[in-house]
Amino acid sequence: EAQVTQNPRYLITVTGKKLTVTCSQNMNHEYMSWYRQDPGLGLRQIYYSMNVEVTDKGDVPEGYKVSRKEKRNFPLILESPSPNQTSLYFCASRLRFNQPQHFGDGTRLSIL
Amino acid sequence: GESVGLHLPTLSVQEGDNSIINCAYSNSASDYFIWYKQESGKGPQFIIDIRSNMDKRQGQRVTVLLNKTVKHLSLQIAATQPGDSAVYFCAERTGGGADGLTFGKGTHLIIQP
Description:
Helix content of chain A: under 10%
Low-confidence stretches of chain A: none
Distance between the termini of chain B: 37 Å
Shape of chain B: globular
Order of helices and strands of chain A: EEEEEEEEEEE
Oligomer: heterodimer
Number of strands of chain A: 11
Strand content of chain B: over 45%
Helix content of chain B: under 10%
Largest interface: A-B, 25 and 24 residues
Structural class of chain B: mainly beta
């Protein structure tokens, strides 16, 4: 089944403790993105990647890192999480630029 | 003006009626538009898309209309069913060098029995 898989689905952690949210897609898509979703603000892009070893900032990149060492994986790294990064995070992938995204089911992060 | 906004945060319709969800966009350079459906606890799910060289596109029970003159996008759902209850987002892509979509904030569609 074609899908985007995120792990973990839920995480409660404390300020400053490094964490990684993994994202994997099995569709051989070139493009991958990370979004955060906050009430009243909608989906905002954090980082995106157009291919292996090619990443770029989205609209809200501060406090986040990403890597794209393999086509299928696109982890999101919070080196020193802070409470304002408490949010619902979505990973997405698509085959080409002007095609719809396929989203994962989300990761709910709570930073205390 | 607001880019990719939705006119109503909540829309309540009777089961079996048609639903129309509206979206306004402000960037006349946008060349690709998408509608997503997000059910509680899940990620956005692609419904239908339309490119700027089209005015209308139909899918199964859904139709998207694009009016470039007034920069307006709408999603019509025929014979609304309980399973259509969700938040619906429109999104636009400007077609420029930067990746990414600009999403609207969503309309919550509520189905009345």
